[in-house]
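Bumping my old thread because nobody answered last time. Still need a sequence for this structure:
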């Protein structure tokens, strides 16, 4: 029984994890219309339902992010012109008629054809409108990595003690004496007496002042790169659907006149969060030599696995940072950027949870980048 229960839980989680790539999504919407006459007519109700459907589509794009919401504005008219192409099913959840205000309100849940919605957005992009011959070359390089070791440092403490001492003294010395001589029978006798008196006093006062500083140094982490063949397919498919002529950075390297090395970029990402200036300069010059105007690059940082509190399965979080550069300019320009944003995946094992999280992060990062490019009208 426990085995069956675990299988059912895992099936539901896998279905949920795959929802980001699903071509059908559920969304809810609500709308209110005013009417004339004693009650809402069939046409009034149909008008309210249509408005609620559009609200549901808008809600879906609003949840997807800012750039996706802008895409909705670009295809609003297409949805209104052919709603059945984008809305597969509509379920009325609630309806209310206020006869005093002559208003009819309806709430619906719709099943959206996400594939057609994305195709509509893509067809509106400047890249696609330019035709196949005008597709812009784009190279990408994303690395997935995990912390390999972390070096921490003890606090460095400096102490200073200032001590001040004042001493006051007073010494008085007095001496009294007498001398005499006497003669008799051919001899001289002498005598002397001395009296000495010493008085002294000493006063001492001291003050101590302490101070110093504590220097703390941030920990240094090194990363190990993880195989990312599956991620390459995710990025390739997303950029291709957006209308670009896509190439992996490793495939472009032989055509960069030796100026760009994939290994150099990987080494930088092993030791830090950003590329070194020299590495970035070599990437730009190499891609220019290969006549690649756009370059997408970034990191997907994998966190440590833990147990998901809701399902008992393994859970892994991935933090993604990505950007897309236009290097056709004299000074490269960042056209789109994503992150840092975190996505989590679950699975029966750590490997499956990590793979689910990486795919989810890669898919969403690529979609966000392409959405921003579409909004900018990039060719």
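Sorry it took so long. Here it is:
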């Amino acid at each position: 029984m426990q085995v069956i229960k675990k299988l059912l839980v895992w099936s539901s989680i896998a279905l949920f994890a795959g929802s980001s790539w699903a071509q059908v999504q559920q969304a809810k919407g609500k709308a209110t219309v005013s009417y004339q006459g004693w009650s809402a007519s069939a046409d009034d109700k149909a008008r309210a339902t249509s408005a609620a459907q559009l609200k549901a589509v808008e809600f879906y794009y609003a949840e997807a992010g800012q750039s996706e919401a802008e895409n909705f504005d670009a295809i609003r008219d297409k949805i209104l012109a052919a709603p059945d192409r984008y809305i597969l099913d509509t379920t009325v959840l609630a309806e209310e008629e206020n006869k005093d205000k002559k208003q009819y309100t309806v709430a619906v849940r719709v099943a959206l054809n996400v594939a057609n919605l994305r195709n509509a957005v893509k067809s509106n992009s400047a890249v696609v409108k330019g035709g196949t011959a005008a597709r812009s070359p784009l190279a990408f390089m994303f690395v997935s990595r995990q912390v390999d070791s972390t070096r921490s440092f003890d606090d460095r403490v400096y102490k200073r003690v200032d001590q001040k001492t004042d001493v006051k003294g007073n010494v008085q010395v007095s001496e009294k004496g007498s001398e005499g001589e006497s003669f008799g029978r051919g001899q001289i006798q002498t005598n002397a007496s001395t009296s000495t008196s010493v008085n002294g006093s000493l006063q001492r006062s001291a003050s101590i002042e302490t101070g110093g500083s504590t220097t703390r140094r941030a920990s240094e982490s090194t990363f190990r790169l993880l195989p990312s063949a599956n991620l390459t397919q995710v990025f390739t498919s997303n950029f291709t659907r957006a209308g670009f002529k896509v190439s992996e950075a490793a495939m472009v390297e032989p055509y960069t006149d030796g100026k760009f090395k994939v290994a150099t970029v990987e080494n930088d990402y092993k030791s830090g969060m950003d590329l070194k200036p020299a590495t970035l300069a070599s990437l730009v010059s190499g891609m220019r030599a290969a006549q690649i105007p756009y370059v997408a690059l970034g990191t997907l940082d994998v966190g440590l696995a833990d147990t998901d509190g809701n399902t008992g399965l393994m859970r892994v979080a991935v933090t993604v940072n990505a950007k897309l550069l236009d290097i056709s300019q004299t000074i490269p320009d960042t056209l789109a950027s994503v992150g840092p944003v975190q996505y989590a995946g679950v699975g029966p094992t750590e490997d499956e949870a990590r793979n689910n999280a990486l795919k989810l992060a890669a898919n969403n990062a690529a979609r966000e980048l392409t959405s921003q490019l579409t909004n900018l009208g990039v060719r």
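The radius of gyration is 41 Å. Let me know if any region looks off to you.
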